[in-house]
# Entry
Amino acid sequence: MRTDFELTWGQGAEFGHIAFRDGRAEWHAVLNLPAGTRFADPLADLRRRFHTWHDPIPALLDATRPAAVLHHDVNELRTPLPSSTVGRIALLGDAAHAMPPHLGQGACHALEDAITLAAALATEPTVEAALARYDAERRPRSQAVARAARQAGRMGRQLSHPLAVTLRNTAMRLTPSRAAARMILRHHAWVPPQLP
# Structure
């Protein structure tokens, strides 16, 4: 199914949406707010914050049912773990490398972890050897992507000073679209191990 994705950065805010071919849409908004901030009516607050943003952002918010809005804090594991395994226990996904959502790689890395762990368990002679291989293969890539996601967040929605936002927007306009796409997609390339 073909989709179109668009991401817009503002002052201390980000709005992204995916338009599906069948007419459905998914959107997300990320705001610079203290952890635990909650609103009595989250959708009304988002409509207030984003009503002057470009189309289709106000229309998407107007078409959203209040009960469909989920509100979560963005959590990340800022200090990388020295290992994703302890004894016969392996950590996968956010337990091993919780990352901010700015590259859309969190769930992807959980799946990559699961496939890599399954391949290691199927081919290594012992569980200990499989876990050591899993850790050696997954931790460097996951930690690198988590760092890149954090940097993307800093460049994107986390900028709130007007001068910094203007400089970022100018740099984005001057960056050739192919170069920008390469920068974003470089973390999406991954070849899964063969499962026996």
About this structure: The longest helix spans residues 127-155. The chain has a mean pLDDT of 88. Residues 57 and 177 are 22 Å apart (CA to CA).
